[in-house]
Amino acid sequence: MRKILSSVAAVVLMSSMSFAQNIPMDPSVKTGTLPNGMKYYIKKNTLPEKKVDFRLAINAGSILEDENQRGLAHFMEHMNFNGTKNFPDNKLVDFLQSIGVKFGQHLNAYTSFDETVYMLPVPLDKPGNLDSGLKVMEDWAFNATLTDEQINKERGVVLEELRLGLGADKRMSDKYLPKMLYKSQYANRLPIGTKEVLQNFKPDVIRQFHKDWYRPDLMAIVVVGDINVDEVEKKIKDNFGKYKNPSKPRERKVFDLPSHKETLVAIETDPDATNSMVQFIMKDADAYQPDVTVEQYNQSLVENLATTMLNNRLRELINSNNPPFTYGSVYHGGTYARTKEALQGFAMVKEGTQVNALKVLLEETERAKRFGFTQGELDRAKAQIMSNIERTYNNRDKTESDVLVDEYVRNFLEKEPMPGIAWEYEDTKTFLPTVTLAQTNDVMKQMVKDDSRVIVVTGPKKDNVAMPTEAAVLKAFDDVKMADLKPYEEKASIKNLVKPFKSEGKIAKTETDAKLGTTTWTLSNGAKVTFKKTDFKDDEIVFTARSLGGSSVINDADFNKTQFAYSALAEAGVNGLSKGDLTNYLAGKQVSVNPFIGNLTEGINGRTTQKDLPAAMEMVYAYFTGLNYSPEAFGAFKTKQSAMLDNMLSNPQFYFSSEHAKFMNQKNPRFIGIIPMEKDWAATDYKKAYDVYKEKFANAGNFHFYFVGNIDEAKFKNEVLQYIASLPSTGKTAKYKDTGYRQMTGDYSKTYKKGKDPKSMVTIAYSGEAPYNEKEALALEALGEVATIKVIEKLREDESGIYGGGARGSMNRVPFNSYSFSINFPCGPENAEKLTKSAIAEIQKLIDKGPEQKDLDKYKEGEYNDDKTNMKDNSYWMNNLAKNQLDGSDKYEIMNYTEKVKALTVKDLQDVAKKYLTKNRVVATLMPEDGWQNAQKAETPAAVKATVAK
Asked: pLDDT tens for residues 260-302?
């Protein structure tokens, strides 16, 4: 007996020693600290090949600004794109575009309260690009020129970004943030800053911010990609180690989000608000401490289990036939301050029901605290977490560099552990099975607090909608505490989604395409299955099924009765099982399967893994053969959609899109709006939509299935024969139909007025019918990219009139041959006419002279860069394979794209500009309502993170 006891004690001791150990650092990442305090993280990673991702992380953001610097942390980030030692003026963006780095899409940065992070992916297809990337990072870190001219020029751009934040959300957040950030410096340091400072600061003020905070001991450089680690480390030491910190550096203070005994309530409304929401925050009593030991890491897993189970309960309510809100969730995690975590709940609700939604969130939280969870819930949550980490682990050798760099940035800034996925997987696999209900139940008791609470209620201001009082909100907490709640009732688990059956289906014909690497089976029921085995990911299969027809073959009257119902059909579930039942059944499985009826096609989109392919195929079979009919589920869908959409027209930008779409489609009887309104729901025929679906999916012989990924052909074949070859078929074929309706063409200028904030939007569009020409289609697409470069150069860099904008061009084969080209940008109403003229003048230059060769070359380099990445992407291949079925395009187009781009000339782009951009121009402008000039000028948008391309 003594022997047994001592053995048990040894196990306990070993276990406690294991838990007391520190979390290891990923050994595949080389880390270090230079003598000046600058840290570095370097890792070799070959996905994507011949590419490297850089990050420069600075542990300084808007929280460190002095009162006369509000907004200058973010402004400083802009300035790093407007002149550095090695890239004066705007030469940085120009150079990076020339090597294939797209502005905004690839090249970016953001400023938050506590940090500033610069992001740069660089292709390594040319000698010297690695060194150039390091030179950019060095300049961003230490060598901004900050000339008076460039500072003053950039004011307009930053003020335009500030303008973008104006609106109902800003006005409401101005009022509730002081309570959410109660007695905190964060309330006074939103990253975008104040209009007064941005307009009037002296250049020396931003230079002082740069001097104080852009210093080595507050920085880290991260380099991940297809590199030689030792070579990069040496370059970092040589190039970054020479910079020194100030002789008397300012203290990098850490700011808190203080606790408080009171429950603070903010109830805010605005006439232009589009949604009704409720949010609660229960702040932790202690300051947040990052996980250091294995025990702390595992305790975080226990917290994750608890909130996963709580959110699973909320999801059941949302998926019920009487949903309390459109969306709702609860989580325990970070707040605005790094030093404070909190239990936080959020719900989007139907107007006037905020208090009821708050009660539901609080009741479910209280139910979990009072009674705990069930073993079935815990088992499902464990399976969910294990499935997620298993998928990541299985793809560990095929993880993209841009995913890895962000993890290392978080390690530097927030001390998030980075042991590597192999360690995380093994620890989770070992620890998760040992977690008990007692542990997860105890976590809920610790997280729910009676003090340091904040409740925020927002919604539209309407005469016929009463907002709750503060007393009513506070009473909700008391009511929940006294409520006669019952424990959660576990539902019976589902054994099979589809009853076992023997399939008689066979493969009637096999075709292979060596060039594409595909195999196509024609099945005995007429369905076709094309699959491509890849090694882009070690454990990923993406798929789609397409049948031609869609809603285009439905007559006008029935189309108008059903168009808004199709997205609701899957809400009913399958085979007598509700959507909530399906969610529980799929817990712990990597399965996503979604049926659809589109304009020209109907089908199914999905994603899964090798292990879960059988479950995914079950879902496919069930959606073909067993979709439920449930008016109750449709009613619940309408309720949630109405809560989300009913007030969208209050938003000026959405109103602009809606009204302009009405104008462009005024001759189309099938167009009744871009979103359903109350009258549209009233006219919607759910039964008719259901019958349309059933008829279309009763004919599998008209479907072509496409699968791409790491497919085990033998196992895959069994699943295809069981679940696809056995689907019913009528033997009929169908195609899409051109309804004959067209948008307005001609030259028009339309102005729409909405909103009181000084915000405008401009759209310049050209469109019409034209015979499809593959070369012209590519040239028109390229012209859109080149025009984007010119719009940014002229309207942003030269005129400081916009924050962002762009152009795009395309040609379509289906449902009829057509072309379209458009330029879009937001701006100030006082500048709308002038900037519109400038944009049209840039188009005229493209017509008269064609683009500059350097701009066409920038487009080409960007496309070469993207194509290399795309050709290693499963979804990209799947969509291109399916495209041929719809439009009859060259199925080998995907193989020849780079060569076609390379062949484009300046003349090709000028020719399409002359052909398509000299007529049928529609200019649409959003202007605020009359009197906007007298509107109070806003100073501080609600955004807490300013993500910018400059």
From this structure: 999 999 999 999 999 999 999 999 999 999 999 999 999 999 9
pLDDT in tens, 841-875: 999 999 999 999 999 999 999 999 999 999 999 99
**Using CA atoms, how far apart are residues 780 and 776, in angstroms rounded to an integer?**
6
**What DSSP element (H or E) covers 319?**
none
Q: What is the 3-state secondary structure (H, E, C) of 343-363?
A: EEEEEEECCCCHHHHHHHHHH
**CA 360, CA 92: separation in Å to the nearest integer?**
52
Helix (H, G, I), strand (E, B) or coil at 93: helix
Task: Please report how many Cα atoms fall inside a 13 Å half-sphere around the Cα of residue 624, on the Cβ side.
Answer: 28
Own/partner long-range contacts of 664-668 (Cβ < 8 Å, ≥24 apart)? 664/743, 664/744, 664/922, 665/741, 665/743, 665/744, 666/744, 667/741, 667/742, 667/744, 668/741, 668/742, 668/743
Continuous segment of H or E residues that includes residue 876: helix 874-887
Q: What are phi and psi of 855, to 5 degrees?
A: -75, -40
**Cβ atoms 358, 339 nearer than 8 A:** no
User: What tens digit of pLDDT does each residue of 355-405 get?
Assistant: 999 999 999 999 999 999 999 999 999 999 999 999 999 999 999 999 999
Question: What is the amino acid identity at position 652?
Answer: P
Q: How far apart are CA 216 and CA 78, in angstroms?
A: 20
Per-residue pLDDT reduced to its tens digit, 556-594: 999 999 999 999 999 999 999 999 999 999 999 999 999
Helix, strand, coil percent values for the chain (each to nearest 5) = 45, 20, 35
SS3 assignment, position 41 = strand
Q: Cα–Cα distances in Å, from 565 out to 553, 556, 559, 823, 876? A: 16, 15, 10, 33, 29
On the question of pLDDT at 791 being above 90, the answer is yes
CA distance 268 to 174: 10
Q: What is the dihedral of CA 251, 257, 261, 262, to 10 degrees?
A: 130
Element (H, E) at 662: helix 652-664
489 C-beta neighbours (distance < 10 Å), count: 6
Q: Give this prediction's pTM.
A: 0.94
| pLDDT score at 491 | 86
- Structure tokens of 309? 């189970």
Per-residue tokens: 947: 């993500």
Complete edge-to-edge strand list for the sheet that includes strand 219-225: 30-33, 39-44, 219-225, 51-58, 116-123, 108-111, 946-948
Q: What are phi and psi of 285, to 5 degrees?
A: -75, -40
Which burial class, exposed, middle or buried, applies to 335 when counting CB atoms under 10 A from its CB (0-12, 13-18, 19+)?
buried
Angle between helix axes 375-394 and 294-318 (nearest 10 degrees) is 110
Residue pair 375/516 in contact (Cβ under 8 Å)? The answer is no
Q: Which CB contacts under 8 angstroms, 24+ apart, belong to 293-298? A: 293/19, 293/20, 293/21, 293/22, 293/23, 294/18, 294/19, 294/20, 294/21, 294/22, 294/23, 294/427, 295/19, 295/20, 296/23, 297/23, 297/417, 297/427, 298/19, 298/427, 298/431
Q: Please name the residues in contact with 88: beta carbons below 8 A apart, sequence gap of 6 or more.
A: 145
Over residues 174-189, the mean pLDDT reads: 96
